[in-house]
Amino acid sequence: MKTITRYFLLVCILFGLGCLTSTTAESKPTGNVIGPENVSFPSGSETVHGVLYRPQGAGTFPAIVIIHEWWGLNDWVKQQAQMFAEHGYATLAVDLYRGQVATDPEMAHELMRGLPQNRGVAYLRSGVAYLKTLKYVKPDRIGAAGWCMGGTFAMQLAIAEPSLRAVAINYGALETDPAQLTKIHAAILGNFGALDRGITPKDVADFAAAMKAIGHPVDVKEYADAGHAFQNPNNKTGYRPQDTADADRRMFAFFARNLK
User: Fold this and answer.
1) Using CB atoms within 10 A of its CB, is residue 176 exposed (0-12), middle (13-18) or buried (19+)?
2) How many H helices and E strands in the chain?
3) For residue range 159-206, what is the model confidence (pLDDT) as tens digits?
4) Of the residues 85, 90, 167, 205, which has the fewest C-beta atoms closer than 10 A?
């Protein structure tokens, strides 16, 4: 299995792939969303921080852990959390970088290198546990979604956290070891770019075949005109708005089927 650091050094440094500045307009919740709320929760002896959104109204909601790219917990990631909250989910964007946000690829690379995979997965599992304590969250209806580095962590979280019901992997590194894949209980959706030179069509096909071999359904789609990071408008040359809209629709339908 590729390490996260080696994989994203290849994808984000060698091939560029949207490694521009990470600034976006500040996320502004609409009237039907409560948030952003800065929260903290324990992970072993550490305290982890995140940003929480939820739909307005009484009752309980399914929930989604939102996993950021190698930039960190920036405005674009908060916008994704807000977007899913607007569709009826409590969302928790977990800060894997302990408050730091990259402003250039070199800093993003250094932050990613300083994040051991086991620590990142532990933080995310603690985020799942935290969501289960919230009175307005359905504790048996929790999923996860990640992009780029966050997509890789979504893959690993699906393996490590058996209580998850649904996981969306957006151009993250994929696992093919049957011993690891058999640990997954969640439904899996994947969105990938056919022109991605880091996660190639062969990688996607191998993953789908490995999942089929163990009898676990998986829904993967490749976008013919897209490369890596095609869903992020900061990727000035690689952003594909029509493909992004389709990928978002796929995720909305996927989570509605599996969490609502």
Assistant:
1) middle
2) 8, 8
3) 999 999 999 999 999 999 999 999 999 999 999 999 999 999 999 999
4) 205
